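lol ok so funny story. i was supposed to be doing the assay writeup but got distracted and ended up predicting the structure for this chain instead. priorities right. anyway since i did it might as well share w the group, maybe its usefull for someone
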Amino acid sequence: MTPQAVSHQSPQLPQKSPKRAAFASWIGSALEYYDFAVYGTAAALVLNQIFFPEDSAAMGTLKSMLAVGVAYVVRPFGAMLMGPLGDRFGRKFVLMLTLFMMGGATFAIGLLPTYEQAGVLGTILLVICRVIQGLSASGEQASAISMSLEHSEDRSRGFTTSWTLQGTQFGSLLATAVFIPFAALPEEQLMSWGWRVPFLLSAVVVVTAYLIRRRLEEPPAFTEAIQVQKRATPLRDTFMHHTPAVVRVAACAMVNTVNMVFTTFALSYATTGMGIDRGIMLWVPVASNTLGLLAIPLMARLSDRIGRKPVFIAGAVLAGASMFPYLFMIHEQNIVGIFVVGVLMHGGFYSMANGIWPSFYAEMFPTRVRVTGMALGTQIGFAVSGGVAPVAATALAGDDLTGWFGPAVFTAAMCLVVVIAALTARETSQLSLAEIDRVQQS
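and the output, tada:
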């Protein structure tokens, strides 16, 4: 073979590694979203008292929910930074960057001085750490999902990408489970040192995820795409040619309202408003997330067979409607009903939508702007639902935090928006990744 012949050969592309990509996405997302979710649990149980101690119970909870929401508000700005980085420098680059950002911010929260120790400075530092968490989360899921989607075989993209969300589900489960023994501590010990331990454990999280993710290669589709000259930067390309898809994903992503009301507002409503033991309420998300671990990949596999839209839409409708009986059971202090309805709503119905959206959203964009488009869309939707939902639900519950109907109506209305947006999407489950690039290309 002559040197001239060699020079015309295309660079060899890496091989697809569906199982390795799925596992790396799962474990990384699980560990990183442990960091993110542990804050939400702490905000509902502890942070409202130690960082906003001079307020009434309802006002302290409301300010704590605002601190939860700030991480969601900054996520669209993070998406404009992290998304283009993922499309230009690689999915793996962003996955490693966000890992250290999230882990560092979470570890720092465990070291913060409280309001009693440092006054308003402690509260300001808490919000700064939460902002860093939000910026990190804005790139994590979009990069992990793109990585697993582009490594996947065409017939199983829904199933392969669902492991990223199954990982976040496990991370949320782990965050809640870790808090259970500390929530059982005497009040003085919980408020002085017990709440810090789950945050400090993020050091283990960072090391574990790093060791797993460092060996993962970029997917072939991305490697091939960056060899082609781009007409514009990923961010400009997305805004110029894929704005309708970004808006559609943003609207669909507001299905996260169900999750936010369930994991943050309902916990405060039950413990602060209705006086239900916090240890009992912590077991509800543990049980629901356990069911979700099974339901997410099963529903994703179903979407590979019958399509993304029917499974996603059914999940949004059923989860939104189930918020009425769930909050009513809390209002009635019906412990059995709380567990039955809560686990079915969140672990079953919400998981139908939660397991489908990674492939559903990712397939709305071509490879060259997939991380940017998906990050922007999801983070705008998460900003609205995550930033507004806990605050709106808390405000609608009234000054004494005992109203249930208003928060339930709000959740159902948000899910109606989700359904309308999903109905406008193209069904892509039966298309190959190459065909998706062609049909979604401008």
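Residues 18-50 form the longest helix (33 residues). The chain is about 80% helix and 0% strand.
back to the writeup now i swear
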